[in-house]
Amino acid sequence: MSAGMNRRRLVQTDPVAQFERALEIREFENQINGLFAAGTIRGTTHLCLGQEALAIGLAAVLRPTDPVFATYRSHGIALALGMTPESVMAEIMGKATGCCGGLGGSMHLCDMELGLLPTSAIIGGGLPIAAGTGLAFQIQGNDRVGVAVFGDGATNIGAFHETLNLAAIWKLPVVFICDNNVYAEYSRINLTTPIEDLHIRAESYAMPHYAIDGMDIDAVTTGITQAVERARSGGGPTFIEAKTYRFAGHSRADQALYRPEGELDKWKPRDPVLLMEQRLIKKGLLDSETAEKMKSSMKDVIENMVKVCQAAPEPTVDAMFKHIWTPKVRA
C-alpha cells in the first residue's frame, strides 16, 4: 500500500462528511470487535465506541503539522485525522500493508504526515512528549501546537502533574485533552479519584481549563478551537476535560459487568453518532432514508475492506530489524 493510499483528510467544515466519518469509525470498531472475538486477530484491542465526536472534533480543528499524542484507544483518532481504514485495519491485523508495516498493532498507530505520532500503551505516556514538542515549536518561533489526549486515569500519575506544571511555567503551545469516559480501565472514577470534574486540577498550575460535552461534535469543535487558537497566539496551554462515555468494555475480553445497572442505558441517548444524525435531519441537511442508506453503504465498505486486509501479505522476518538503528555516516 502506497503512502498516498494510506492518507486522506477530513472535510473539516462539512457536517455531512463528519457524520460519514463517524459512521466509518463506528462500523470499523464494530468489525474489529467481531474479528477479535472470533480469534481472527491476535492480541487485544481497545474500542472507542461512543467517543467518535471527540476524535472528529479534534481532527476538524488541527492542522496536519500539529502533532497528536494519543492513547491505545485511538483507532477513531487515526481515522478522523485522515488515515484510511485499510491502513489502520491492516496494521491491527499485523499485515505488511499496515501504517507501521504490521509491527505496531492496535495500540501503536502512527502517521507523521497526518500529525499522528505513535499512540502509546503507557498511561499518560504522551503528556511529556507533547510538552516537548511545544517547547520545540516555541524555540523555533512557529505557530504549531502539540496535543496530548489521555484518559481520566492519567490525571492521577506524576507525569500529568509534572507536565502541566512545566507547560504552565513556560507557557508552552500545548492543548491537554482529558477523555473522561468515566472508567480508568476497570475502575469507575469515583473509586479512584476524589473529584468528578478533573479539569479543576489545572487550577494548581494557573492554567485555563474547562469541561466540554464530549458527545456533542459542535461542543467539541468549539472547545478545542478556543484552546488551539490560544496556544497558536502565544497564550500558553489549556486543559480540556471532554465528558464522554465508553460504550464497550476496557478491552476485548472485558464485558464491563462492573457497570452500575442502567448506566449504559442512561448514556445511549447521548450517542454522538445518533446526535449528529438527529442534528443534520433537524437542519434539513439529511433525511432518515439517506442516513439509513449511508449506514448500510458504510457497513458494506468496511466489510469489503476487511476482506482486502485479510488477503494482504504478512511482514517478513527481517521487518522487525528495520527502523531501529542508523548506520554511522562517515564524514
What's this entry about, in short?
With 331 residues, the chain is α/β, with parallel strands linked by helices.
Would you kindly provide a written description of the structure presented here, covering whatever features stand out?
The chain is an alpha/beta fold. It has one domain: Rossmann fold, CATH 3.40.50.970. 42% of the residues lie in helices and 9% in strands. Helix 7 links the parallel strand 2 and strand 3. Helix 2 packs antiparallel against helix 4, helix 3 packs parallel to helix 9 and helix 6 runs parallel beside helix 7. The chain is globular, with a radius of gyration of 20 Å. The two termini are 35 Å apart.
CATH class: Alpha Beta
| H/E element sequence | HHHEHHHEHEEEHEHEHHH
Task: Report the strand count.
Answer: 7
Shape summary = globular
Estimated structural class? alpha/beta
- Might you state the CATH topology name? Rossmann fold
The whole-number mean of residue pLDDT values reads: 92
Largest sheet: spatial strand order: 1-2-3-7-6
Terminal CA distance reads 35 Å
Q: What is the radius of gyration?
A: 20 Å
Q: In CATH terms, what is the architecture?
A: 3-Layer(aba) Sandwich
Q: For the record, what is the CATH homologous superfamily label?
A: Thiamin diphosphate (ThDP)-binding fold, Pyr/PP domains
Oligomer: single chain
- Please, how many domains? 1
How would you sum up the major sheet?
5 strands, parallel
Strand content: 5-15%
Poorly predicted ranges (pLDDT <50, ≥5 residues)? 1-5
Q: What is the overall number of helices?
A: 12
Please estimate the helix content: 40-55%
